[in-house]
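Limitations
The C-alpha cells in this dataset are predictions for the assembled complex, not deposited experimental models. Users should treat interface geometry with appropriate caution, especially where small molecules or nucleic acid strands are included. An illustrative entry is reproduced here so readers can see what is and is not provided.
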Amino acid sequence: MRVHVADHPLIAHKLTVLRDQRTESPTFRLLVDELVTLLAYEATRDVRVTEVEIDTPVARTTGIHLAAPRPIVVPILRAGLGMLAGMSRLLPTAEVGFLGMQRDEQTFEAITYANRLPDDLSGRQCFVLDPMLATGHTLIAAVEYLLERGAVDVTAICLLAAPEGLQTLEQAVGERGDVGIVTAAVDERLNNQRFIVPGLGDAGDRLYGVVD
Ligand SMILES: O=P(O)(O)OC[C@H]1O[C@H](OP(=O)(O)OP(=O)(O)O)[C@H](O)[C@@H]1O
Ligand SMILES: O=c1cc[nH]c(=O)[nH]1
Ligand SMILES: [Mg+2]
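Predicted assembly:
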C-alpha cells in the first residue's frame, strides 16, 4: 500500500490551526478546503493522462489531457463532504459518488447508511475523501465497495492518519489492488475511545456541529 505523508510547511501550519480547539467551524471549514487542494495535488500525481496534439497561436505541439474514463471522487459523509469542494477545484471533470458512513462508537465498526456509487467502476481511478483514518474500519469498507465494483486504483486523501489504522488497512486491502493513502500527517496513536492523538477531535462535529 502506498502511503505518502505530505511534508510542507504550509500544510503543517494549516494543520496546526485546524488542530487548535479554539478554531471555530467557519475557519475550520476554510482550512479543510485549502488543505485538501494541497493534498490533492500530491494524490493526483499519477492521474491517467493521454497525449493530445494542439495548435497554439504560434505552432503545433503535443500536450496532455486527462484520460477517459474520468476519475471518480468519493467523499465519505459527513466529514468527507467538507473536502469535496477543494478536490473538485483541482479535478472539476471528475464524477462524484457518495458514501454515508458512521462509526459505531461502542464497537468502532463502520455502519453504511448511504451508498450512491456507480455499479460499474471497471478500470476507474478513485479518490476517496475522509479527513480521519483512525481504526481504519471506515476506509476498509469504502475501499472494498470500490474494488468490488472493479476500481483499479484507489487513493484515499486524509488529513490525519493513526499508525494503527494504517496497519489495519494494509492488512485488509493492501494486497487486493492498488491502494494508496495521501495524508497531511501520521499522528502518535489512538486513545481508548479510538480517537486520534493528538488529532483534532471529531472532524464531523468541528465542521458541522455536534449531532446525537
Ligand atoms: O477509521 P475509523 O475508526 O473508522 O474512523 C474514522 C471515521 O470516523 C469519522 O466519521 P464519523 O463516524 O464520526 O461520522 P461523521 O463524519 O458523520 O462525523 C471520520 O470522518 C471517519 O469517517
Ligand atoms: O479522532 C477521530 C477519530 C475518528 N473520527 C474523528 O472524527 N476523529
Ligand atoms: Mg464524526
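Some entries come with short summary sentences. For this one: The chain is about 30% helix and 30% strand.
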